[in-house]
Amino acid sequence: MPQQLNQTKRFSITLILSLLILLITFTIAMIFGAADIAIRDVLSALFTTHTNDQILIIREIRLPREIAAIFVGAALGVAGAMMQGMTRNPLADPGLLGLSAGAYAALAITSAIFPFLNYYMVMVTSFIGAAIGGGLVFGLGAIKRTQLSPVRMVIAGAAISSFLYAIAEGIGLYFKQTKDMAMWTAGGLSGTTWSQLEIVIPFTIIGIIGALLLSSRLTILSLSEEVAVGLGQNIKQTRRLLFLFIIILTGSAVALIGNMTFIGLMIPHIVRRFVGNDYRFIIPLSASYGAIFMVFADTVSRLIYAPFETPVVAIVSIFGLPFFLWVVKIKRGAFL
Amino acid sequence: MDRLSTADVSFGYDDTLVIKDLNITIPNKKITTIIGSNGCGKSTLLKAMTRILPYQTGGIFLDGKEISTEHTKALAKKMAILPQAPEGAHGLTVGELVSYGRFPYQSMLGHLSKKDHDVINWALEVTGTSRFKYKAADALSGGQRQRVWIAMALAQETDIIFLDEPTTYLDMAHQLEVLELLERLNKEEGRTIVMVLHDLNHAARFADHIIALKEGTIVRAGSPETIIHSDILKEVFQIDAVIGKDPLSNKPMCITYQLLKGGTQT
User: Fold this and answer.
1) Where in the cell is it found (chain A) (predicted)?
2) Is the residue at B144 inside a domain?
C-alpha cells in the first residue's frame, strides 16, 4: 500500500526520480534548438576544452540559458511553497501576490534612472521591489480585520500588480525603454550570460538553503499558529525569515527572467501529491521539479515555432491558468 | 508547591480587556477544569497562560519566572497546549504529526534522535494510535484525530498539559475515551492537566479543582463538591440546577436544570 510506505522512502524515491528527469530534460534542452547539435558536442562542451561552432553555442548560449532555467524554476517553486505554507493560501505565488511585479517595477526604475548600475545593486533593487510589492498586497489584505479569502488575496495581488506594471510601463515610456522591458519579459531567458549567473546563483542558493533550514518550522506554522507557539516556535521571527528568503528567491528569479507567474503556484501542489504536506519534503522537491518544469518550458518555447522563439511566459501560462482554476475548484471550502 | 499562578493579570483582544486583574493558582499534579458560559473568557485565559495571547498588565508565573520573559522554546519543554479543534493536518501522516511534538528539543535541521523516536512511539502507544502511524491524519475519525493531537502534545514531554475543549465534536464514547486518557496521564504519571470543558458533569467527574468564570472574573474556585452547587451554577450559568450524586463516580452531578424564573439576570 502506498500509504503504508515510509514517508522518508517516498521522498527519497521522488527526489532521485526528479534528478533523473532533470538530467534527461537538461540533455534534451542542450541538443534541440535553432542550431543542430549532437550529443557528442554536448559532452565535449561540458567535459573537454575542445572548441568548434557547435560547442561554442552550447557553452556560451545554451548552457548558461538552461542553467538559468534550473535556478529560476527552483527559486520560484521554493518561493511558492514557502508562501503557500506561510499564508495558508493555496493560491499563493510570487507572481500572483505582487512580488514579481514589485521586483519588475523596481528593475524598470533603476535601469531607466541608473542604466550603468552594477549588477549587485540591480539584484538588491529587485529584492527591495519584491518586498514592496508583497508588502503592498499583504498590507491591503490586512486592512480588514478578518483575513482575506485566498481568492480575494489574489484579486488584491492582481490590482497591485497592474499598478506596479503601469509604473514600470510609464517609466519605460518616459525614458524610452519600453521596448527593452518588453523584450526582457517576452525574451525570457535568452541572452543570459555567465557573468549574470555568477551573481544571481549565489543568492538563489542562499534562498533555497534558508528555506530548507526553515522547512520544519514552516510545516508547524502551516498547521496552526497556536500549535506553533505551543511547540515553542518564535512565529514572528519565522515569518520575517520566510519573507526574507521569499523575496531573495523571487528577486533573483525576476532579475534573470522577468515576470513569471504560476510556477510557484503549480509546483508545490504537484509535489504535495507525492509526499503530503511536510515542508521538509516539499521544499527540496519544489526546487527540483520547479527546475524541471522551467527547463521544459524554455525548451518548448525555443522549439515549438523554431527558429523563432515563442515567449516562455505564454508557454507557462498555458499550463498555469487551467491549474489555477483547478486549485480554486478543489480547494473551495476545504482548507483555506 | 504549585508551579503555575497568575498575579493581577489582565488581557484581551485589541483594546477590550476580556479578563481583568485575575489571580489564580493551578494546583500541581492535579486536573484543573475551567468552566463558564460562552464568552466568559475561559479560552482566552488558557491562551494567556500558554503565552499564545500576550497579557497587558500583571503577571503569569511558572516556577517563579514570568512566562512573557522566558524563552519560548524552554517553555515548550514545560508546558504543552492543545488548542480548540485544531484545523486539519493537511496530508501529514500521524507519525509525522506526532514527531513535530519533539520540535522544542530539536536543532534547526530537525533530525530525530533515538530518544525522540522512543518518545514518539510511546506517545502513539498510550493514546492508542500506533496502528495509524503511517496513515494520513486527515483520514481518521474525529475521535482518533483528537487522540493524535494529544499524542503530539505528549511527545513534548511536559509536566503541564493545557487542552481547550478536547471533547468537542466527539461522540459520548470518544469523549470519555479522551477524558480517561487524561485521567490516566494524571494519576499514573503525575502530569498537571488544565482544560476547558463545556460539560459540567465531565468537569465534576474528572477534575480535582474547578475554576468557575463569569465575565472575566472568578466566581469561585475549588473542589467539584463546592463548585457543582446550585447557588454557584445559578450565578455562573443563570440556571436553576438540580444537583445529585453520580452513582458511578460518587461525584456531584447536575441531574437536570431549567432557566431561572423571571428572565436571565445580568
Assistant:
1) Cell membrane
2) yes
